[in-house]
Amino acid sequence: ARPPDEPQTLQVAAGLADMLQARGEAAAAMELLQETYAAQRRLLGEEHPNTSMTARKLAEALRLQGQRQAAVDLLRETLAARRRVLGPGHPHALNVAMSLAGALQDLGEVAEALQIQRETYQAQRAMLGPDNPNTLATAAILAEMLQAQGDAASAVELLQESVEAQTRVLGAEHPVTLSMA
């Protein structure tokens, strides 16, 4: 059933879609996300933060169902909207950029994915600092991409820097630090 065209109800509907996805009800989640996204675009416009958040969720659902090109297309549109409204270095724009990099990698567009991930990492280092948990998580993803591209030396160097920072920030026994080691 289509959610009513009210901003709060649409936001709750997007959250419900997350729960459906987590329960393995991918088709129901996809349908609800598509309806919610369409309603938010009509009611709030494509540049509204809630619309962008739902677009990201929809793109992830598309990726999970193998509709990689559709996910990339949606993320490109969403990233352009976030950059127009918030600027290219805003955390919300950077989060969409990271999603786009992952979707591009899934699609086999590895060079572009790596470029976007590098740019995102550099922007986070500049804005959030090198020891910020989000920056460090982005570094780990970038290291995985570098490794997949055969640049093991850069991947190892980046991971070593990240583990050192995680140890400083969270401690040597923290689960995140241990997962990166």
TrEMBL record:
**Tell me, what's a Pfam family for it?**
TPR_12
Which InterPro entries does the UniProt entry name for this protein? NLR-like, TPR-like_helical_dom_sf
Annotated transmembrane regions: none
Q: Domain of life, per the record?
A: Eukaryota
Matching PANTHER family? AAA+ ATPASE DOMAIN-CONTAINING PROTEIN-RELATED, ATP/GTP-BINDING PROTEIN-RELATED
Name listed for the protein in its UniProt record: Kinesin light chain
| Organism this protein belongs to | Zooxanthella nutricula
